[in-house]
Input
Amino acid sequence: MLQVSTVPELRAALQRMPRPVGLVPTMGAVHEGHLSLVRQARADCATVVATIFVNPTQFGEAADLVRYPRPIEKDLALLEGEGVDLVFTPSVDEMYKPGFTTVVHLDGPALGFEGEARPGHFDGVATVVAKLLLQSLPDSAYFGRKDAQQVAVVRRLVIDLDIPVTIAVMPTVREHDGLAISSRNAALSEEQRLAAPAFFLALSAMRDRYRSGMQDAAKLEEGCRALLAREPLFEAVDYVAVVDEQTFAPWTGGGPCLLVAAVRMGDVRLIDNAVLD
Ligand code: AMP
Output
C-alpha cells in the first residue's frame, strides 16, 4: 500500500494505477463500517484509494475536533489488511492552502436535521468531498448509509457540479446488539453503551410497523419518539422524521423514504436511520 500526502503525489500515483478507481473517504479511526466500504470498493474496482482526513471545516466545536481520535498507524494497518492500494493522508494545509475561500454550499438535502443541529457542517462536508473527488477523479466513491443525509448531499452535489462519478451507498454496519458502529461510541460510558441499542430497536420497531402497513409519517414519528422517551439515558431527541431519501424533504408518500433520528447521551450525539421499504 502506497501512502501519499500531497495532491500532486496522489495524481501521479493514480496515473500509474489501473482503472476503475474506487474512492473511500474517511476521517480515520477506522472501524468495520469503513472496512465494509473498502471491501465493496475492492470487489468492484481495480484500484482502491482510501483517504484519511479529519476535516476541520465540518466540525462545529473546536473541542470536538481536538478530541477526534487519530490512531493513524492502526488505521493504515487495517486499510492495508483489506487490500487498499493507495492511502491519501493530506495535512490541513495541503487541503486548505493559504487564502482558501471557496465553499460548496447546498440547500435542499442539507437543510434541517444534521444541517440544523450542526450549522456549517454540510458546507464543510460538501467542500471536502468535492475536493477529494476532483483530486482523485475516481470512477466510484463509497459512502455509508449511516450518514444518510450526507449521502443525499453528496448525490446532489455530484449532479449539480457534473462530477463524473458513481456514488455507491453501503448498508449501516452494526454492533452485535444493533448499535450503529461509530468512532463516537467509544465516548459512551458503560451504562450509556448498554442503553444505546434502544435507539436501533426504536427505529427497527417503526420499520416493522411500516412494513405491516402503517405508512403514516406522523404516526411513525410519534411511535418512535414514544419508544425513545422510555430510555431515560436519551437525554434529548434532536429530531425524528420520515423523509424522502433523495431530498430529505418530509415524506408525503411514494418513493423511497427513511426514518432518521438523532439522540443525545451526555456529550455524545448518536445518529441513525431505518430504510422504510
Ligand atoms: P467518517 O470517517 O465518520 O467520516 O466515515 C467515513 C465513511 O464511513 C462515511 O461514508 C460513513 O457514512 C461511513 N460509515 C461510518 N460508520 C459506518 C457504519 N457503521 N456503517 C457503514 N458505513 C459507515
